[in-house]
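User: Can you predict the 3D structure for this chain?
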Amino acid sequence: LITKEFREEHQEIAWNEVIGMRHVLVHGYYQIRDEIVWGTIQTDLFPLKDKIERLLCK
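Assistant: Here is the predicted structure, written as structure tokens:
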């Protein structure tokens, strides 16, 4: 779980986009475009995960 305090301390991450994607996946069943989700997984997910893990280790 990423706390609000952590998000506020690390505004270099596009938290609104991360949260927005989560909302679409959870609530926007009929609005989900597979190619956008797959593109996000392929290009953004692992770099984001790595960056957050590095920040958590500081």
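The radius of gyration is 13 Å. Residues 11 and 27 are 25 Å apart (CA to CA).
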